[in-house]
Amino acid sequence: MSRQQIADTARQVSSPGLKAGDANPHRLRSVLIARFSALGDVAMTVPVIYSACACYPDVTFTFVTRSSMTSIFINPPANLNVVGVRLDDYSGTGGIYRLFRELREKYRFDAFIDLHDVLRTKLLRLFCHIHRLPVATINKGRKGKQALTRRHNKVLLPLTSTRARYRQTFHRIGLPVDNRFEGLYGHGRLGDASLFSQITEPKADGEAWIGIAPFAKHTGKIYPPSLMEQVVKRLSSLGYTKIFLFGAGSNEEETLALWAERYPDTVSLAGKSYGFPIELALVSHLDVMVTMDSANMHLASLVNTPVVSVWGATHPYCGFKGWRQKEDDIVQLPMTCRPCSVFGNKPCFRGDYHCLRGISPQVILEHVTRYIDGENIASE
Question: Count of CB atoms within 10 A of residue 375's CB?
Fold first, then answer.
């Protein structure tokens, strides 16, 4: 480990004696937090922000993000404001200054926590510095991620998780956070089943509900649809399962609609625009969710649904594992070229995406059957 890495680590370690709830050196009363994208990264803020609200009930937290993402903040704490903005309405330096001014006037924040560290949030930090407001910025650990994903001389060691990096950012502004989050519906609780009555009837006795979200933003994260269809086919054939397919976009909608037509008791939610409150309520009632390294993995984790996640070009070591996700539920191949990318957006070193194509549908099925009280699925 280099001197710089040691120094970075030292800065991230909590100071002795500083505990959540009894530290607030700046006597903060209102804190602005920003993270504009992506959906999975915003979802990962939820356990930290809700915990911060519980640790500091006398502090008002205002989280600003894209308008399309605000509805994942279900059952927010009383001291949390979630503000959605259309970033196209605040383009350029002048637009970001106008956003700063509007937020400052309405919420009177006296500190800023930047959980994104991109140009827009850097401008917000600049305006905070001009107004002499305390600022804390996430350390994304870019050097460690480069060492983990480079083609040669790869350093295959787990990095600090993104949620831990979020907590460290709160700590740097004087608000150390203990984990007090127990899920969007609370410990052991489910979403209101009446919310998704338009999608399906209540779960029958002995019926197993399985969610499958087979797509992701980048090719390096997507298990081949032809292989995932085999998973759907064999789960549907069990006779006591109901499968819910999650996706977005016209291509995904077309594929999932075809699967729903081919296989009994299979429902596609793609393109229906039910919204996060309805879909998350449904997900909370699933016995298990199958996802890629994608936003759906994080959303399912937030409602305490077991997640079987499939990883290809990316790797849990990069710090994006789902909240409380079990290591045993991660499906991946031990290949020396993995991970080749943090986000799955780089071309495959080998050119064949064997990291995904080499995973047998049987392996995924065996992970799923741990949760549905079924007999082991025999190989065809």
Answer: 8
Classified by CATH at the fold level, domain 14-172 comes out as Rossmann fold (3.40.50)
At 212 the three-state DSSP class reads: strand
Q: What is the DSSP letter of 41?
A: H
What is the full per-residue pLDDT of the chain (380 aa) written as tens digits? 444 443 343 333 334 456 776 677 778 999 999 999 999 999 999 999 999 999 999 999 999 999 999 999 999 999 999 999 999 999 999 999 999 999 999 999 999 999 999 999 999 999 999 999 999 999 999 999 999 999 999 999 999 999 999 999 999 999 999 999 999 999 989 999 999 999 999 999 999 999 999 999 999 999 999 999 999 999 999 999 999 999 987 789 999 999 999 999 999 999 999 999 999 999 999 999 999 999 999 999 999 999 999 999 999 999 999 999 999 999 999 999 999 999 999 999 999 999 999 999 999 999 999 999 755 444 44
Helix/strand/coil (H/E/C) assignment for every residue in 239-292: CCEEEEECCCCHHHHHHHHHHHHHCCCEEECCCCCCCHHHHHHHHHCCCEEEEE
pTM of the model: 0.92
Residue pair 219/226 in contact (Cβ under 8 Å)? The answer is no
Q: Write out the two tokens for 303.
A: 């409602």
Neighbours of 344 (CB within 10 A): 22
Domain spans, the chain: 14-172, 197-368
The answer to whether 14-172 and 197-368 have equal CATH topology is yes
Cis amide linkage into residue 38, ω under 30° from 0: yes
Q: Identify which of 110, 161, 159 has the alpha carbon closest to the alpha carbon of residue 136.
A: 110
Helix 162-172 × helix 3-12 angle, to 10° = 70
Q: 3-class SS at 47?
A: helix
- CATH superfamily name and code, 197-368: Glycogen Phosphorylase B; (3.40.50.2000)
Stretch (H or E) spanning 103 = helix 92-107
Q: Give the Cα separation of 123 and 121 in Å (integer).
A: 5
Is residue 58 helix, strand or coil? coil
